[in-house]
Amino acid sequence: MNHTSDRFIDNSRAALANPVLQAALANLKRGFPINRAEVVADLPEFEELRNVARDIKDHTLDHLDVYLEIYERNVRASGGKVHWARNAKEARDTIMRICRDAGARTVTKGKSMVVEEIGLNEALDASEIRRVETDLGEYIIQLRDEPPSHIIVPAVHVTKEEIGDAFREAHEGLDPTRALSEPADITAEARTRLREAYFSAEVGITGANFLVAESGSSIIVTNEGNGDLTQTLARTHVVVASLEKIVPTMEDAFAILRLLARSSTGQEFSVYTSVSNGPKRSDDLDGPKAYHVVLVDNGRSSMLGTNQQDMLRCIQCAACINHCPVYSAVGGHAYGWIYPGPMGAVLTPSLTNIAASAHLPNASTFCGQCEQVCPMKIPLIKMMRHHRNSAHQQGHGGKVSKFALFFWSYFAGRPALYRTLTGIGVGVLAALAIGRGRLKSLPLVGGWTANRDLPAPEGGTFLTRYRRGER
Amino acid sequence: MKQIGPEPGTVPPIRVGLFVTCLVDFFRPSVGFATIKLLEQAGCKVEVPEIQTCCGQPAYNSGDPATARAVVLAWLDAFQDFDHVVVPSGSCGGMLSHHVPELFADDPVNGPRAKRLSERTHELTEFLVDVLRADLVPVHRGGAVTYHDSCAGLRELGVKQQPRGLLAKVRGLELHEMAEPEVCCGFGGTFCVKYSDISNAMVTNKIRDAEASGGDTVLAGDLGCLLNMAGKASREGSPLAFRHVAEALAGVDDIPPIAGTGVRQ
Ligand code: SF4
Q: Is B179 an interface residue toward A (CB < 8 Å)?
């Protein structure tokens, strides 16, 4: 996927000027956060569970190598195979090789952010293999040839009308005047299309919400049941997961699952929680003949032991995104890479580079709503601040703000000079605003006065007036 | 034997150093005077060290901790002898009471000093309610107001009920809660200049919610948020008036609000 985080400002302007997107974002804001608040209020031990979940992941990350090896042993014991991929290319190449070896002409795919991250879609689309997305949202953006704009509702930016248009264009041989205005029409038509794909696919690819070390299991949650069908109907099932999805035990996974759907969509549990464990055994009713797990590092192991390690606790619930006023103003595409919102502002610079993504951790008011709702208690603000530090050190802070900061710190460190200067400043602003109480434009802070007036200072600085004896 | 300490039967007043913040100093001295008045009513002896400037937050949040440390050191020198430091801002208060210890975590000399002073540093309403449990002189300040919860005060310091509790005692004042009073107004320090368009979208929502609240005056505990909201309301021609919560509590009505008239047409 193209990385356009460096164009965040232009991207966000375009997003703000897009009324369709703005309406979709307003709906999102009214939906998930309200549901979340309700189910969280209904679970008295929610706060306690957050601590439990944080501790489980912290412990796992501190012993990541151990648990990954246990996991691999157990996958092998159940007849599956684990492939280690250091980077996106290795992961892509491995999966493409598995697909070719399986003689794949059609591949079904469940929703997976790491699959987006490694660019597998592009690799499949450039090959002779037909890729069919089985998550409805993913299916829609596949038809529209777009990246996801949200990690759990990838097509949140698309209207019903646009979906209808995309279906009419893609699904040939149907009555072009058929009704496609209701969600039921859309899902019915998608279901028919997908059923054909489920039965013809040689390979089914899914992500994983959890990998369980003690049993070698992988767990996915969906609301559509597409994950089950993707992983059981194809001859070969490929699980693609990043390293930090591992937890030691099934009990650990289920402790965190109690937080996941509540934080994410405001459900108590997702509709489907599907566990997969190696290929079909002789007495199983169904299941794949071959079972592969591709474990993707792609920059994560280098976050271990650094001030970015806490981010590896993330379970990609999107609570931080759903509650972020910046995300809800500009949507996901503005962030310019796979992961949007606060979690993206932390993860993207770590997984790519700070030079190209310095805007993301900077474009935050540090309002803290994300941290307040993060089920894994990730200190998102602190981590964004760490990225700001690196951006500053490497000179990606922008010349103007660097200069302003230097200027400010020079005076802030010299109280007498500071007092003189602020005294002059107040006088100048007051003179400019005379009779109106506000300034409509002012050099250097054009960003302010482009959209708002600057209220005029009341007159005289506090310190001067206080020294003169005023009380 | 010579008596050490206070006269028997008297308690020495709490010595408070007022850290006025650079925005109050520059834009709204009345907030500083209102703060002094409230603290004195609560029995404190208030002093204003002259060598104060800024809390260091602009540098800290711009990724320049070294510069932030230099600025905070000046604050330490100026305020270390007070019983408490009081700040009429949740944002600067949060910086000084929560982030400063972290900023000096690796400094064996200034670290402990910073930690000790940070523990004695408070946002104004939090100090009045939680530390002093103060009974303020009841004032009359009629009118319908709405209260915006500034982010740092709310989430770093837990300032939520304190200003509301104090406002409930102001005679004639009615509080009308707006929808989503806890959502950020889009100020965010340099954010509002660097990401002006996003900030604008956020403050537009905030003004809409404030106007719908039925309050005529928007109160908040942070001048940054107030200037942002007042600037937007003024540009839009909204009649909403804006004041710092300290002004309302101290009954300040002889200076005009930060913007607007508070009178709906
Ligand atoms: S950072 Fe926290 S809130 Fe955001 S997606 Fe990850 S776990 Fe969820």
A: no
Q: How far does residue B234's CA lie from ligand 1's centre (Å)? A: 37
Query: Does A403 contact B at CB distance below 8 Å?
Result: no
What pTM was computed for the model? Answer: 0.94
Type of residue numbered A199? F
A positions 327-386 inside 8 Å of B (CB): 329-330, 362-369, 371-372, 385
- pLDDT tens, position by position, A132-150: 999 999 999 999 999 999 9
Which strand ranges, in their side-by-side order, compose the sheet holding B84-87?
A: B44-47, B14-18, B84-87, B121-123
Return the CATH fold of B15-130. Answer: Rossmann fold (3.40.50)
Side by side, the strands of the sheet bearing A217-222 are A246-247, A210-212, A217-222, A272-276
- At B136-149, the pLDDT tens digits run 888 888 799 999 99
Question: Ligand 1 centroid to B228 CA: how many Å?
Answer: 29
Is domain B139-250 given the CATH code 3.30.420.40 in the classification?
Answer: no
* Residue A441 forms contact with B (CB below 8 Å): no
Q: Where are the beta strands (DSSP E) in A198-333?
A: 203-206, 210-212, 217-222, 236-242, 246-247, 272-276, 290-296
- The architecture in CATH of the region A301-397 reads Orthogonal Bundle (1.10)
Mean pLDDT of A54-69: 98
Residue boundaries of the structural domains of chain B: 15-130, 139-250
